[in-house]
Amino acid sequence: MKIRLIFILLLFQISNQGKSQILKDYLQTAAKNNPGLNAKYKEFEAALQVVPQVNALADPTFSLGYFVSPVETRVGPQRARFSLSQMFPWFGTLEARENAAAMMAQAKYQSFLDYKNQLFYQVAAAYYPMEELQQLIRLEEENLQILETYKAIATSKFENGTGAMVDVLRVDLMINDSKTNLKILKGKYPSLLSSFNALLNKDSGEEAIISDSVIFEPIPLNYRKDSLLYDHPLLTELDRKIKSSEARELSANLQARPKFGVGLDYVLVDKRSDMEVPDNGKNILMPMISVSIPIFQQKNKSARVEEQLMQESYTLQKKEVSNVLIANYELSTYELNQQQEFILLYQKQTRETKQVLNLLFSAYSNTGKEFEEVLRMQQQLLKYEQMKISAITKYKTGVAKIDYLTSKTLQTN
Fold it and tell me: Over the stretch 86-132, which tens digit does the pLDDT of each residue have?
């Protein structure tokens, strides 16, 4: 089926920009397995089946009558009558109904596309926090190793008489904090994994492949702004609904016109036994034409007014959707730029903090003093690295949101 082929092709036409191969594979899995998305596609397929229903003629009518008391005629008594008739609507009525159903099916397809775009955004928004969590765990484990090294150095200096016992106790406190933080971070993973797998229609505990690095890829200003309102599924869906309503309005107008019917009556006639007459016992064949008289017009008038009001409603909805898309895009762009500034700041702060930490540690190695400042600067470095990872995650999630707002997740670059 042509429509099914289009659907299969859409599953694999996923944007390459800003997405790792791992995430792209998960997007394809979600497109195939997500029950909500498949339900939307079934709605579209069901809507397609309405088209052949509405453009079909009414069933012909066949009737059979038997004369209990035969009706006497010149050529003999009538025994039975067979009638076959077919009604036809006014010219163009069936075409208008077909157009209305076809446009509504297209609207369902656009709804499916928007749901798919939302799903892709949700998958990305669930994947990036797992990526972030993995990096935060790595940073905390590295921090714990560094603190263990500091403890060994502080203990050695205390034993040699060049350091204080309080330095060992201070680093012990920070090691305890680090172990607790690490335990909390690891405990968060199952809930994130469960939410992610739900989108893919997988078992909640099934392991996911996570990228081992978080990469910051800047995007240009006004990213995809030119395509914000161009061919967006939500806007196209409303356009199709407007056209469907216009076709239904035309159909209501045509319903006010007469309907035509053609038919054929066949009457069985017995022969007369009392005399011989020309055509004695000859059966009767009678073609018929009928015309409906559209006297009661209130229902058709109400149907026309209903569709006109629906067209106004869809037009206002389209304006509202456009306004929301623009507002969300501007807010998302601001937040994206904000996170980009944070990332650049944290990168700079990380470099400078490492330099300060190296100087402080060298001084401590020589004098055995200001160990507290070394520990403080180590925790400050960890904080900047953690905030950088979190900012990159928010940035990448923001890019995914703009991809959704601009409905470009299915386009190849």
Answer: 999 999 999 999 999 999 999 999 999 999 999 999 999 999 999 99
The residue among 237, 235, 228, 230 whose CA lies nearest residue 406 is: 228
Model confidence band, residue 171 (pLDDT cutoffs 50, 70, 90): very high
Tokens of 341: 């500034």
End-to-end CA distance of the chain: 28
CA distance 166 to 157: 12
Cβ atoms of 8 and 179 within 8 Å: the answer is no
**Dist CA 128 CA 134 (whole Å):** 10
Distance CA 139, CA 385 (A): 8
Among 76, 56, 78, 58, residue whose Cα is nearest residue 68: 78
Beta strands across the sheet bearing 76-88: 61-73, 76-88, 260-269, 284-291
Helix (H, G, I), strand (E, B) or coil at 29: helix
If pLDDT is split at 50, 70 and 90, which confidence band does 336 have? very high
Domains of the chain with CATH codes? 2-33+116-255+299-405 (1.20.1600.10)
What six digits make up the tokens of 275? 């005399």
Radius of gyration of the chain (CA): 38
DSSP state of 99: H
Inter-residue contact 388 to 319 (CB < 8 Å): no
- Average pLDDT of the residues in 19-32: 89
Packing angle between helix 93-160 and helix 165-200, nearest 10 degrees?
Answer: 160
Q: What is the pLDDT of residues 387-401, one digit of tens each?
A: 999 999 999 999 999
Cα 41 to Cα 103, 155, 198, 306: the distances in Å are 16, 66, 19, 28
DSSP 264-290: EEEEEEPPPSS---TTTT--EEEEEEE
Q: What is the DSSP letter of 89?
A: P
Whether the model clears a pTM of 0.90, i.e. scores above it, the answer is: no
User: For residues 105 and 102, what is the distance between their CA atoms, to the nearest angstrom?
Assistant: 5
